[in-house]
């Protein structure tokens, strides 16, 4: 996926606009909270700290939770993930949180981080694992066998750390996600 194609992954709106609705106007109790889902496999602390930093001075509370009702009551949900896709899907199912995550995806913004983003798709080649099916598509393994980077070094998969992000035009325009971010400071990481 290109960045442009991947951006809708950040919200369940991309797959199910007909199910999107404002929970406050549907008679549901929703708090001004971001629920970071703790199903036992996430990079919880780093994800939660990033969300807390982003929410600073906004009046939004961030809560790490393993309680399905907290996920249902939150106004936004973050699904972290770390490890192998089969393990993450199994733990999400066995934790009793899968149904709450699927309900959240139908009615509020849901953001997947690292393996959590992969879990949003239909299927992963890693362990031939079904995903949550919120986004049509398959997670496929990078084909890096015998390939080297421009500097001659091997590709590292998974690659963790900081990298320069190269901004590109899509259909002649810069994507709004890059907004006011100067290209010389664009960096990304997934740990």
Protein model, in words:
With 191 residues, the chain is of the alpha/beta class. Strand 1, helix 2 and strand 2 form a beta-alpha-beta unit. Strands 2-1-3-4 form a 4-stranded parallel beta sheet, with helices on both faces. The chain contains 6 helices and 9 strands, in the order αβαβαβααβαβββββ.
Order of helices and strands: HEHEHEHHEHEEEEE
Distance between the termini: 20 Å
Derived from helix and strand composition plus strand pairing, the structural class reads: alpha/beta
The strand count comes to 9
| Helix-residue proportion | 10-25%
- How many helical elements? 6
Beta fraction of the residues?
15-25%
Features:
single chain, disordered C terminus, disordered N terminus, three-stranded mixed sheet, four-stranded parallel sheet, alpha/beta, 6 helices, 191 residues
């Amino acid at each position: 996926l290109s960045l442009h194609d991947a951006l809708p992954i950040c919200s369940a709106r991309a797959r199910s606009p007909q199910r999107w609705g404002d929970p406050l106007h549907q008679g549901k109790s929703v708090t001004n909270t971001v629920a970071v889902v703790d199903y036992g496999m996430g990079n919880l602390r780093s994800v939660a700290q990033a969300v807390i930093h982003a929410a600073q001075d906004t009046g939004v509370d961030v809560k790490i939770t393993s309680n399905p009702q907290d996920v249902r009551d939150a106004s936004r949900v973050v699904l972290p993930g770390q490890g192998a896709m089969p393990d993450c899907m199994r733990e999400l199912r066995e934790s009793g949180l899968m149904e709450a995550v699927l309900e959240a995806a139908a009615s509020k913004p849901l953001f997947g981080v690292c393996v959590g983003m992969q879990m949003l798709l239909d299927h992963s080649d890693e362990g031939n694992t079904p995903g949550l099916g919120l986004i049509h598509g398959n997670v496929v393994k990078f084909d890096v066998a015998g390939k080297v980077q421009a500097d001659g070094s091997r590709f590292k998969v998974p690659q963790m750390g900081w990298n320069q992000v190269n901004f590109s035009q899509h259909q002649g325009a810069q994507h709004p996600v890059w907004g006011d971010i100067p290209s010389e400071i664009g960096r990304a990481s997934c740990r």
